[in-house]
Amino acid sequence: xxxxxxxxxxxxxxxxxxxxxxxxxxxxxxxxxxxxxxxxxxxxxxxxxxxxxxxxxxxxxxxxxxxxxxxxxxxxxxxxxxxxxxxxxxxxxxxxxxxxxxxxxxxxxxxxxxxxxxxxxxxxxxxxxxxxxxxxxxxxxxxxxxxxxxxxxxxxxxxxxxxxxxxxxxxxxxxxxxxxxxxxxxxxxxxxxxxxxxxxxxxxxxxxxxxxxxxxxxxxxxxxxxxxxxxxxx
Length: 234
Known about the structure:
Layout (H helix, E strand, L loop, with lengths): L2 E8 L8 E6 L12 H4 L1 H4 L7 H10 L6 E5 L9 H10 L3 E6 L4 H9 L5 E5 L7 H4 L5 H11 L5 E7 L6 H13 L5 E6 L18 H11 L5 E5 L2
Parallel strand pairs: 2-3, 3-4, 4-5, 5-6, 6-7, 7-8
Antiparallel strand pairs: 1-2
């Protein structure tokens, strides 16, 4: 497990909390529109600084009075067998922990939730389930749906989708929203703005970013299906 990014302070990534963000490298989805391509590509991530865990923990200890929580993001954190130990150590230090995941490893999520190691989970739903094999280079819909069932049992969670031109249109979003609403996983849904920057597939750099007006129109349409629908922009 390599820590390839460390954001020392944020008020955005963990709703309602001042937090730090730990970025773990590697991902099993390889989505073309991913803006963290430097964490996916083996060549690119080899050029990144590796943050020793001791260095990260030292900063967290020194700033315990200012930081309430720690976000573990990526990449895809659930690829690592060491993840539960990392989270346990953070919990022992007194931090709330938020996990960002693509939902591909429900068995890891089950263990984390069962052992009360995560306080908040944010799961990306990449597209409607019929298109997952095209977007994520593999049919993982079964695992994604299992993860949704687990995550909805938490007090604090969110599902989020990046509105990518030609990948996630209005019809796709309505299908995603309908599935979440029907299965009682409709506490919070986040519409994320696509930005043609640092994409894993250079073809996506040629697309236009999603307009805020488009996101607001989609937000209004989806609001009846969720307790909360938010927009996240650059």
